[in-house]
Every structure is written in structure tokens, then in C-alpha cells.
Design brief:
The complex is a heterotrimer of chains A (547), B (359) and C (377). By secondary structure, chain A is an alpha/beta fold. In chain A, 30% of the residues lie in helices and 24% in strands. The longest helix of chain A has 16 residues, at 202-217. The radius of gyration of chain A is 25 Å and the shape is globular. Chain B has one domain: ABC transporter involved in vitamin B12 uptake, BtuC (Orthogonal Bundle), CATH 1.10.3470. Chain B is mainly α and 359 residues long. Chain B has helices spanning 10-50, 58-79, 92-118, 123-146, 164-167, 173-180, 184-202, 204-214, 216-221, 226-252, 264-274, 279-301, 309-316, 320-338. In chain B, helix 1 packs across helix 6. The chains are: A alpha/beta (547), B mainly alpha (359), C mainly alpha (377). Chains in contact: A-B, A-C, B-C.
Chain lengths: 547, 359, 377
């Protein structure tokens, strides 16, 4: 791995990359990028299996596949983060070896990662020029000139960038703009975007597509990784579908449709949505009245939320990540103390009670971060299967003195069988299970308790289609048993598929609640992005959180 | 002002302030000297933690440097005769001692870096190993090499006496006295503090270090060599710990006692936290702790008398051991109060795995 | 778990620690030879063998010696459990020294006060005072961590120093016995622990039974009780513990108090069993030994028991070793440090002896210890 020793380079940012190489007269120039036979093995899994991919200048090439198919591994190889076991990479027709990110950057490859690679406490400009710092002399950074250049880069897309603003105070959409500027600042020719729309509203997604089309017109070569079918149909020039590490098909948008792509992606005729049927809601079970809560930095992020969920209905909360959902869920599940307001379950006041007390009142919580909250990874699976009711009989006897290990084991066996959790035995550590099976284990544990209220937070994040389908069916089943279900998810599709009623959260408030059947995707997207049902458009200023 | 002394309770506090003003200029140089090992230890801690590595072995590094520096200087002085001495009373044996002290600390830092960064063992354990090893090894070797040679020693650096016209200046004279009536290592402290502060926030090295300590994966994806940067910073941090140790046996006292660091390495960590991981902040914290220590010593030597006798009787009732433990008590108070408010580098303590999952 | 499985697991877990001890002894031998040759000019390769031989002689050659070994091991078992239980809950208790001192102080003070009462009253009173004092001294860093996030790694070390100063002050002041030749507390009289084995010098006292009882009790607590499950969960994943309905703050306080109690019993046992009073400069290094013991034993009560026996053996025999071969007793500290090094960098051990990678030799829960360093879990 080479240390980036480049210093003193006075950056002149060109708006367009150099013109394509001239080849033989009459022939098209070689593709900007070719990956041939790329193979990567990890213990127990073949992540990339002899993949071929090519990319031309001035095109948007979509890499489509479900979670875990191998798309990110392939791009990590391109970016030099991972070395391939077999295969070669050619840039402009010449074979190259990419030894690390600085090598990739030097060759004009830039990547916008799925999880932002931004240092929160540093400013926008520090994040952008990190690694390629303009210097005045051998030691000190010259920040003055770069500020101007960053502003110019932003204006090119109609963004007003404040280079000195701390990244942690930016909204998610703005952070992504910074990530894109970071890539462009480095004279990239090839841009790789990994699931860029995962955290965006429909409006912001449209805007990103506009940006990508502009970049394409300027001659950039763009790879766009996603698992969302309608996106590739809308913006891609070519589509390559990857399944289980292999290329299973290449299409142009004009010659395919969602069903065809879905079948390629998953390998069988798959039902993309579960039919949720009609709900027959009863009395309100979970009632929240004027709830207020602060985040870890003492900013108020839940600002007077009131809602009620009836038994036998699913209330879905849609919203862009960072609008207060985390703190809302934590306040309802005992992981955070609300600063004001009232929460009742079946009439009983449970405001601010710790999780144990809530569980006894009939609440269950499937947390967003399954590895941090939902499981103790180093414990065996059987201990994990009773994690939220370990202190109740029959697992605990004599007033909490003794643990009945046999009872724990029996329960674990029951749940593993009933919910089809794939594991060699119940004694292995939970860390050995796949993500999908870990989530199934948590779902098994929480769904099979004596429930009145079920709070689901990102229940299918990062899971494969089979697991998603399974869990969605279980959720509907629970609803039909009369449980009141609160669903919080960043995947608008999931919310629209499952919810009987949909509420939109924006800046800590619920700005609308609509019926699930008549919900309009566009309208909800607008609400998510702006808090208003109709509007003049997206704000042009970066958002600053005021304490 | 004196008439205010009689007011109950508040009067005592005013007496206290007056007493501080009275003894301040004379104890200021002592205060700075006491702060030297704490501040250098804190600089070592900052180099480590800003890069994302927890180092609680500073205490052990200081102790080992103090010992080996002293022994090297002592044996060098014993084997060859030098009658020339340069500024600060420096002689080749003393210089050798400082070099050995720094070298030992650098080696220990290398060990800590290797265990923490490459082996990825738990960083607190790595630091604890160094502490236990230092205590045991220096205790053992003390018995073998020093106890049989009570006259071993190369002496110390001499303090410099600043010219009177400088120290007699009104208002600021005592400041010059404080910073200049010192030996070379103590004088160099403020230089290192300022230089490190500037570099940390204005230089390329500083930006990359902070990035690596907050979000190493982001830095990695931009081509920065996270592991190499951490190694280099930990090793340079060792230099500071070595200077702290050298100060103890080659500038402040001229001898070595088992366990003589007495927890300074840990107080240094409190300085880091209290000073919000900035060199200047940590230096200020070190002065605070040193001030408490110096105050305790002075109360016995120059008790408040005359108009301040009221204060004197209150302070006299306090047992002498109290002043000795004041630094430790203040450390606990600082940790309990400060931690909630000051935020460490986000990635501190987490070993970085290239190309691996987020830890 | 079936006995055979248990044995297999124990062997797998014990391989690296045993080999680390072996390497530590070899390193100690090297240090002996080198330092001896540097100071006396003679390279005496037979020195380590004679030194270790006298070590064994001093610890195992007769009833008196064996009793002394067990007696040395007694406080180490208790302190080792103190540190080990802390580890299991994700806490690094470096304050066992200070808690030991407070336990000794409490027992000495209470013992002196009830020295004339009947033993059946005096002994429990003095022991109880020691336990209480130790538990209180463990409560302090536990509460600080739970309420303010102050990391126990630094606070407990500070408290160690404070404990020593407290003893210096109290023993020269309020607790001093009049008419004694040096400052010390009064004799504990009837509160002394009766001798149950060996000579009358008190080494083979009732305290041994306390230590032996503590091992199975610790095991039952950690692995068979609900409270132990809670403690281990907090140690493995504090966020999940909160989600599971546990109260991590209360568990931290409880655990640290328990650690303090155990170390306090160790101190009380030493005073009531052997020294019968404490001086103003009373000190101990049991707390640091306990760290190595807990890590060697992988924070498991059975492992801790055997590690403590090993260290007891080394400490008991070191006096004879120093007399006969003039090797300072501090060599044990050097060996200890090397053992720790090899435990932490178990890759070295595995490479030398070509062992497949097992679970990490250092306790898993230590991740939580380091992760909470900055004040956040």
C-alpha cells in the first residue's frame, strides 16, 4: 500500500476529463474500463465468480443485484481496497494493477461509498481535500485557494456550499453532495456510486439522477450500484445483473422490464410484494401524546409527536433518515428518556420506563441495529433466544437466583424450528449466523412473546429477498392476530407495502398521516423531503441544525 | 483589603486568594517543574489518542526511561572522567542518559504499537503489560545495579538563572521567572506544546492524524496509510514519555526510587481528557494539577500568617497527607466532571482492519 | 455439558496460558543469567536451575512450606476473583490493591476495637468490617463509572494511592496504639482467625477456607444465576444488555462493589490471620498479581484458582531463592510481565508451538473495557 506522497500539487479542476483516446480510424475507442474474469474468494463464499464488465466514457452503467450478491466486493476490487484472486483490469485497453485507493485515485477512479466516508467533526473542505491537501510549503495546508474551488465545483450543479461547515451538521442529502464533490475534486474519469439513493427521498433521487446525467454529458464514465429496479430503468444506459457472484444477464433498459430484471436478480419468479389484505383494527393500544426527546448532543429531535396505533393495524412511519426516527423509537422502547409527553400501552402509563418494564407491559422491539442491540454476538444462540425475557420464569427460578438452562434450551429449539433459523446447532455463537438468520432469530424471539405492541425498526435492512419475504409475511400474520404494530423504515417501498396507515416524519414532527391504500408515492416523497404536501421545490441552502 | 478577611466563610475565601497572590510568584517555577512530567506524558497521550490508540502504559514508559536513563548516565560518569561541562551543566553522561531514556521509551512505544495496531490485542491490556513490566523490571534491576552502588549518579542538568532585569519586570516578571528559571527539558516543554498545537490543526500531518483518529476507514479510502500513520505517531509519542522520564532522574532529582513515577502517567491521561485532547489544554490541566501539588508543599513551608492567620489555622487542621493525595483526588474529580462534556476521538481504542468490516 | 466435552474445552482454553507460563519462566531464566553476568562478570548458566530448584524447595518441600504456599495463594485467589469477575462484566479493576488495603484497615480497626470480646462475636465483626470497607471502596469507582462515565482504569489507580495515604494518616493519628515502638493499630486479639493447620505463626489460618469457598461461589454466581447472566451480558455487549431489559448502571455498581468486597476480604484475612495489626506504611502488590492471575485463568473461577496457586507457589518459594541464590524476589514480577506479554500476543506462542488459532487468549470482554474508555459504551 503506498502512502500518498503527492504534495504541492496545485489543483486545477477541469470540468471535463480528457477526450477519449484516439484509436484506429473508424473504430470506437477501447472502453475506459474493462474487468475480465475477476474472481474473489472469501472463506466459505465465492464473492465474485469470473465477472466480466466493461464501461465506456459518457455512459451510466448500472450494476444490479440484491444484498450480498457481490457488487460491492467487485467495486472494492476496482478501487483497490481488495485484491482479486484472479482476473485483470484494463484502463483504456491497458492492463493495470490497482494496489490501493491512492493508486485508484491517481488513475482517475473515484468512489462514493454506501456508508459515507466523511469525518463528522471536520469541515466540508477538510473532508474534500483530505489526502490531496493543497500545500503552502512542506508542512502547512493552504486552505484559502481550495475554498474557492470547492464553491465553484458546487455552483456547477447549482449547490451553495459552505466549505467551513462541519459535516456532522449537514443533512444526509447534503452529505452525499459533499461525497460527490469529493470524487470530482480528484479529477476522476470513472465514478462509482454504491447504493447512492438508499437514504434519499424520491425528490432527492431525481436530483441525483439529474446530476448523473449532467456528468455523463460531460464525458464521465459512471458505475451505479443498486438493488432498486425502477432506478436502473430510469437512469441507466446499460444494466448488468449479478447474482451470487456471477453475471447472470446484461440488458438495455429499452429491452427489459421490472419483472424480467427481478427474475434475473433472484433467479426465480418472485413475488415482490406481499399482499397484506385488509386489516380489522380494534381499540387503540399504543397511544403517544406530545412526545419530545433530545438526541445525544442535546438537540431536540422529537418535537411534539402524537400518534396512536390500534390493535390489528400497522402504522408505518416514513421519513428520511435523521429526522428524529431513531430518537422516537428509542423513546418508545425504553432506550431513551423522553423530555416531555406521555406514552400509554392499553391505557397504562409507561412514559420513560426502562425496557424491562415495557416488555412486561406487552411491548416487543425489533431493533434497527441487530448486532449492537438485538443480539449478544459472542453468546450462544440459545442464550440469545431468551435475551428479552431471561428474567421471567421458567428461565429464571427462585426469584432470580437460578437460571434454568434446560428450559432455555427447550425454548431455543422450539423457536429455531418454528422460524426456520438456519444454524448448525443452538450452542454456536450468534456471530456465526448470516445476517438474515440473525434477524430471523430476533424476529422469532420477539414475535412469539405475549404481545400487544410490536415496534419494528428497519426490520429487513441488508437482507436477501427470501428473508425479506418471510419476515413481511410474519408481520402481516401478527397484525391479523390483533397486535398493534409500529413500523419505522427507511425503505419507502417496505412502508408502502405493509402499512395500513402511513405517517411522515419531518424534522421531528409528524406532518401527515394518510391511509395506506390511497397513499401516493410522489406526495409522500414530497412530504418526506420538505414537510409540505405541495411545494415550490427543494431548499437550496444547506440545512443547519440549530441547537 | 485586609478588612474583608473577617467576614465569615467568604472572608476565608478572600484570604485564600490573597495567599495565592502572595506565594504565587515564588512557587510558579516549582509549579512548572512539577507539571513537566505530567505535560510531557499528556503530549504522549495526545499523540496516541488523536490517532485512535489508547495508551495507558505512559506510566510504565516514564518509569523505564527514568531508570535506564539514570543508570546509563551513572555508569558513563563512573567509567570516564569529564571535567568540562556545558550550558545547563550538561555533560556527556547526562546527554547519554537522556538519549537512552528516550530510546527506551521509543522501544516500548514500538511494542505497544505492534501489540495494538498489528496484533490488535486489547489496547488497555497492552498498556497494563508495560506498566507491570516496568514496575517489576525496574524494581528487580534496582536491587541488582543501584542498591549496591549508592553513589551511582551523573548529577543533573543545572537550572538556568534568568537575568534579574527580566524577572524584576512588573506584572510579567514572574512569568519569565516561571518559564526560564528551569532546566533544559522543562524549558523545552512550552515549545513542544505550542509546536504540537499548531501542527495538529494547521499541518497536513495534523489533519490526517485527526481524520485517522475519528474515521480511519474514510482516511483509508482516500489513500492515507492508516496503520503507518498510527505507528509513527505512537513512536513519536514515546519520545515525549522518554523526556518525562529523563526529567525525573536527570533534571529534577539525581536519583532513582522504585515506583517513583507514583501515578503521574495516569494523571497525564486525565490532563488529556480535561484538556480536550489539545496540547495547550492538556498543558493547562497539567499546571492545574501541579498547582495543587505545589500548594500543598508550600502550605507547610510558608504557612499563611499575620492577617491571613485565619486561613492558616484552617489549613493547619488539614493532615499533611491530604496535600499529597490532592493530585489524585483532583484527577478523579476531573474525570467525573469532564468526561460527560468532552468527546474523545471517535475511533479511539478500536483496532483498524484494512478492508474489513466496520468494528 | 458432558464431562468429556468440559475437559476438552478446558484443555483447549488452557493451552496458551500454560505455554505462556513456560515461556515466562524461560524469559525469567534469561534475565537472571544476563543481569548476573552484567553485575558480577560471571556467566552462570546453572543459576536459573538452582534458583527454580530453591523456589520449589521453598514452596513444596515440607508441610510448613506447603502451608506457606497455600497461605500466599489465599489472598491471590480472592483478589484474582475480584479482578476476574470484573472482567466478566467488562470492567477492569486495577484497584484491587486499594480495596485490599481498605479491607485490611477496616478489619484492623474493628478488630482492635473488639479485641476483648468473645471470638464468636469478634471475628465476624472484624471480617464484616473488612468486607464492608472493601465493598465501599469498590462502590466508589463503580458509581463514578455508572453515573459519570469516568473510566475505572484511571479512577481505581488513583484510589490505590489515596488508600495508602488514608492508612498513613489514620494509623499515625486516630487509630494509633499508644506506647507502640512504631505507628500501628492495636492488636486484634480475639478477632484473630484461628489456625487450622501448620504452625502457630498464623499462616495456616481460617482464611484459607474463605478463599476455597469463594471459588465455587463465584462459579455459581457467574454461570448459574440470573445475576451472573446479567453481569456477563453487560460485559459482552452493554447496548444489548440495555435492550434486554437489564440495568447496566446498577450492574456496574454492584459488580464493582462485589470486586471490592472480595479484595477487601483478602486484606481482612491477611490482617486477622497473620499480621494482627497494620502499620502506617502497610502495602501490598496483590492487586497487580491478580491482574495476571485473572488473565491467565481467562477470567474463569477454576482457571483463576489454579493460576493463583501457581503464583502462591512462586511467591512462597522466592524468599528461599533470594537467600540461597541471591536472586531478588522481584524476578517474579519480571516473569509475570513476560507471561502477560505472551498472553496478549498469543500469536507468538502459537507460532512457536504451532498451535491452531483458538479463541483469543485475552478475555473477550476486554473489548468492552476499552470501548468504554472515552466515556461512551
Amino acid at each position: 500500500m503506498q502512502m500518498n506522497e503527492a504534495s504541492g500539487r496545485d489543483q486545477t479542476v477541469s470540468a471535463a476529463p480528457s477526450p477519449p483516446q484516439t484509436a484506429q480510424a473508424g473504430e470506437a475507442p477501447p472502453p475506459v474500463l474493462e474487468m475480465r474474469g475477476v474472481t474473489k474468494r472469501y472463506p466459505g463464499v465465492l464473492a465474485n465468480d469470473h465477472i466480466d464488465l466493461d464501461l465506456r466514457a459518457g455512459e451510466i452503467h448500472a450494476l444490479l443485484g440484491e444484498n450480498g450478491a457481490g457488487k460491492t466486493t467487485l467495486m472494492n476490487i476496482l478501487y483497490g481496497l481488495v485484491a482479486p484472486d484472479e482476473g485483470e483490469i484494463l484502463l483504456d485497453g491497458m492492463a493495470v494493477e490497482i494496489r490501493g485507493p491512492s493508486d485508484a485515485i491517481a488513475r482517475g477512479i473515484s468512489m462514493v461509498h454506501q456508508h459515507f466516508m466523511l469525518v463528522p467533526v471536520l469541515s466540508v473542505s477538510d473532508n474534500i481535500l483530505l489526502g490531496e491537501e493543497p500545500m503552502s510549503g512542506p508542512i502547512f495546508i493552504n486552505r484559502g485557494g481550495s475554498r474557492r474551488r470547492i464553491r465553484e465545483l458546487g455552483t456547477n450543479f447549482g449547490w451553495q456550499i459552505d466549505p467551513d461547515q462541519r459535516v456532522e451538521s449537514l443533512s444526509v442529502g447534503w452529505q452525499q453532495r459533499v461525497e460527490i464533490l469529493k470524487a470530482l475534486y480528484r479529477n476522476a474519469r470513472i465514478l462509482v456510486l454504491d447504493e447512492p439513493t438508499a437514504v434519499l427521498t424520491p425528490q432527492e433521487t431525481k436530483e441525483i439522477f439529474a446530476v448523473l446525467r449532467k456528468l455523463r454529458a460531460e464525458g464521465y464514465a459512471i458505475i451505479f450500484i443498486t438493488h432498486k429496479l425502477y432506478e436502473v430503468l430510469e437512469v441507466a444506459d446499460r444494466i448488468t445483473v449479478i447474482r451470487r457472484g456471477r453475471v447472470v444477464g446484461a440488458r438495455k433498459p429499452a429491452e427489459t422490464d421490472e419483472d424480467d430484471l427481478a427474475e434475473l436478480m433472484v433467479g426465480r419468479n418472485v413475488e415482490l410484494t406481499v399482499d397484506r389484505g385488509t386489516s380489522h383494527p380494534g381499540e387503540p393500544v399504543l397511544v403517544v401524546d406530545q412526545l419530545h426527546a433530545k438526541d445525544d448532543r442535546r438537540h431536540e429531535t422529537v418535537r411534539g409527536i402524537s400518534l396512536s396505533v390500534r390493535g390489528g393495524e400497522i402504522l408505518g412511519i416514513a421519513g428520511v433518515a435523521g429526522n428524529g426516527q431513531d430518537e422516537l423509537v428509542q423513546s418508545l422502547t425504553g432506550l431513551r428518556r423522553p423530555s416531555a409527553g406521555r406514552v400509554t400501552i392499553a391505557g397504562k402509563d409507561v412514559t420513560g420506563r426502562p425496557p424491562g418494564s415495557l416488555y412486561r407491559a406487552g411491548l416487543a422491539h425489533v431493533p434497527a441495529d441487530r448486532q449492537r442491540h438485538g443480539l449478544v454476538l459472542s453468546f450462544p444462540l440459545d442464550d440469545n433466544m431468551v435475551l428479552t425475557n431471561y428474567s421471567s420464569p421458567p428461565y429464571s427460578r427462585l426469584g432470580g437466583l437460578i437460571r434454568d438452562a434446560a428450559a432455555v434450551d427447550r425454548r431455543a429449539d422450539e423457536l429455531i424450528a418454528e422460524y426456520d433459523v438456519r444454524t448448525p446447532s443452538r450452542e454456536v455463537a450468534a456471530s456465526t449466523l448470516s445476517g438474515g438468520n440473525q434477524q430471523k432469530a430476533i424476529v422469532a424471539r420477539e414475535f412469539s412473546r405475549d404481545l400487544r405492541v410490536l415496534v419494528l425498526d428497519q426490520p429487513t435492512r441488508g437482507l436477501d429477498v427470501g428473508s425479506i419475504e418471510f419476515i413481511h409475511r410474519q408481520v402481516i400474520a401478527k397484525r391479523d392476530e390483533g397486535v398493534a404494530i409500529l413500523l419505522v423504515s427507511a425503505e419507502l417501498d417496505e412502508v408502502m407495502e405493509l402499512s395500513d396507515r402511513i405517517a411522515v416524519i419531518y424534522r421531528g414532527e409528524l406532518v401527515a398521516t394518510v391511509d395506506g391504500r390511497s397513499a401516493n408515492r410522489e406526495k409522500i416523497g414530497l412530504l418526506m423531503a420538505t414537510g409540505r404536501a405541495s411545494g415550490s421545490g427543494i431548499e437550496a441552502q444547506p440545512e443547519v441544525l440549530t441547537p | 483589603m485586609e478588612f474583608l478577611y473577617g467576614i465569615p466563610i467568604i472572608g476565608l475565601f478572600i484570604q485564600f486568594v490573597a495567599y495565592i497572590i502572595q506565594i504565587g510568584p515564588s512557587i510558579a517555577p516549582i509549579m512548572l517543574a512539577i507539571s513537566v512530567p505530567l505535560a510531557f506524558g499528556a503530549l504522549c497521550g495526545i499523540m496516541n489518542e488523536r490517532s485512535g490508540v489508547v495508551n495507558i502504559g505512559i506510566e510504565g514508559m516514564m518509569l523505564m526511561s527514568a531508570f535506564f536513563g539514570f543508570v546509563a548516565a551513572g555508569f558513563a560518569a563512573g567509567s570516564v572522567d569529564f571535567d568540562t561541562s556545558g550550558p545547563f551543566g550538561v555533560t556527556p553522561p547526562i546527554l547519554l542518559g537522556v538519549a537512552v531514556a528516550v530510546g527506551v521509551a521509543v522501544l516500548l512505544s514500538l511494542l505497544h504499537a505492534w501489540l495494538s495496531i498489528t496484533i490488535r490485542t486489547d489496547q488497555i491490556i497492552s498498556g497494563t503489560i508495560i506498566n507491570i513490566a516496568a514496575l517489576g523490571l525496574t524494581g528487580y534491576l534496582n536491587r541488582i545495579f543501584i542498591s549496591p552502588n549508592p553513589s551511582l549518579g551523573a548529577g543533573t542538568f543545572q537550572t538556568w538563572r534568568p537575568p534579574e532585569w527580566l524577572t524584576d519586570l512588573p506584572v510579567v516578571g514572574w512569568l519569565f521567572n516561571m518559564f526560564l528559571h528551569q532546566g533544559p527539558i522543562a524549558m523545552s516543554l512550552i515549545v513542544f506544546v505550542i509546536v504540537l498545537q499548531v501542527l495538529l490543526f494547521r499541518s497536513r500531518w495534523g489533519l490526517r492524524t485527526r481524520a485517522v483518529g475519528e474515521h480511519p476507514r474514510a482516511a483509508d479510502t482516500l489513500g492515507i496509510n492508516v496503520l503507518a500513520l498510527r505507528y509513527r505517531n505512537v513512536i513519536v509519542g514515546g519520545v515525549f514519555a522518554g523526556l518525562a522520564g529523563a526529567f525525573l532522574t536527570l533534571e529534577q532529582t539525581g536519583s532513582f526510587q522504585t515506583g517513583m513515577t507514583a501515578g503521574r502517567g495516569f494523571i497525564a491521561l486525565a490532563c488529556v481528557i480535561f484538556g480536550r485532547w489539545t496540547p495547550i489544554g492538556a498543558f493547562g490541566a497539567a499546571l492545574l494539577f501541579a498547582g495543587a501539588d505545589a500548594f500543598g508543599r508550600t502550605v507547610g513551608l510558608i504557612p499563611p500568617t499575620g492577617d491571613l492567620a485565619g486561613l492558616g489555622s484552617v489549613l493547619g487542621a488539614v493532615p499533611e497527607q491530604f496535600y499529597g493525595v490532592l493530585p489524585y483526588v483532583v484527577t478523579i474529580i476531573v474525570l467525573a466532571g469532564a468526561v460527560g462534556r468532552s468527546v474523545p476521538p471517535a475511533a479511539v481504542g478500536r483496532p483498524y482492519v484494512k478492508g474489513g468490516q466496520e468494528t | 455439558m458432558k464431562p468429556r466435552e468440559w475437559l476438552a474445552r478446558a484443555l483447549a482454553a488452557g493451552t496458551v496460558p500454560v505455554l505462556a507460563v513456560l515461556l515466562g519462566l524461560i524469559a525469567g531464566a534469561a534475565v537472571m543469567v544476563i543481569s548476573n553476568s552484567l553485575s558480577s562478570g560471571v556467566t552462570d548458566l546453572g543459576l536459573p536451575f538452582r534458583a527454580y530448584a530453591s523456589l520449589l524447595a521453598g514452596s513444596l518441600s515440607g508441610l510448613d512450606e506447603v502451608v506457606r504456599t497455600i497461605s500466599e495463594a489465599t489472598p491471590l485467589i480472592l483478589a484474582g476473583l475480584s479482578v476476574g469477575i470484573g472482567f466478566k462484566a467488562g470492567l477492569f479493576n486495577i484497584g484491587a490493591n486499594g480495596q485490599f488495603l481498605m479491607g485490611a484497615l477496616g478489619a484492623a480497626a474493628a478488630g482492635a476495637a473488639v479485641s476483648g470480646s468473645p471470638p464468636l462475636l469478634a471475628i465476624p465483626t472484624a471480617l464484616g468490617a473488612g468486607m464492608l470497607a472493601g465493598a465501599a471502596y469498590g462502590f466508589i469507582p463503580g458509581a463514578l463509572k455508572a453515573w459519570t462515565g469516568a473510566h475505572e482504569v484511571v479512577t481505581t489507580i488513583m484510589l490505590n494511592f489515596i488508600a495508602a495515604a488514608l492508612i498513613a494518616y489514620l494509623v499515625t493519628g486516630p487509630l494509633a496504639t499508644p506506647g507502640a515502638s512504631f505507628a500501628r493499630t492495636g492488636d486484634v486479639g480475639n478477632a484473630a482467625l484461628p489456625v487450622i493447620i501448620g504452625r502457630a505463626d498464623g499462616t495456616g489460618n481460617l482464611g484459607i477456607l474463605l478463599a476455597l469457598a469463594a471459588v465455587p461461589l463465584a462459579y455459581l454466581l457467574l454461570f448459574r444465576s440470573v445475576l451472573g447472566f446479567e453481569m456477563r451480558t453487560v460485559g459482552a455487549n452493554p447496548s444489548a444488555a440495555l435492550y434486554a431489559g437489564m440495568r447496566p448502571g446498577r450492574l456496574i455498581i454492584l459488580t464493582m462493589s462485589l470486586c471490592g468486597l472480595l479484595a477487601g476480604v483478602a486484606g481482612a484475612g491477611q490482617v486477622l490471620g497473620i499480621s494482627h495489626s497494620i502499620s502506617a506504611s502497610y502495602s501490598t502488590s496483590v492487586g497487580f498479581d491478580a491482574i495476571t492471575i485473572a488473565l491467565l485463568g481467562r477470567a474463569h473461577p477454576v482457571g483463576i484458582f489454579f493460576s493463583a496457586l501457581l503464583f502462591g507457589l512462586m511467591r512462597a518459594g522466592s524468599a528461599l531463592m533470594q537467600i540461597r541464590e541471591r536472586v531478588p524476589v522481584e524476578i517474579i514480577d519480571v516473569i509475570q510481565a513476560v507471561i502477560l506479554l505472551f498472553l496478549a500476543a498469543d500469536i507468538i506462542v502459537r507460532t512457536i508451538f504451532r498451535i491452531r488459532a483458538q479463541r483469543a487468549a485475552v478475555v473477550d470482554e476486554l473489548q468492552t473495557v476499552t470501548r468504554t474508555y472515552g466515556g461512551a459504551a
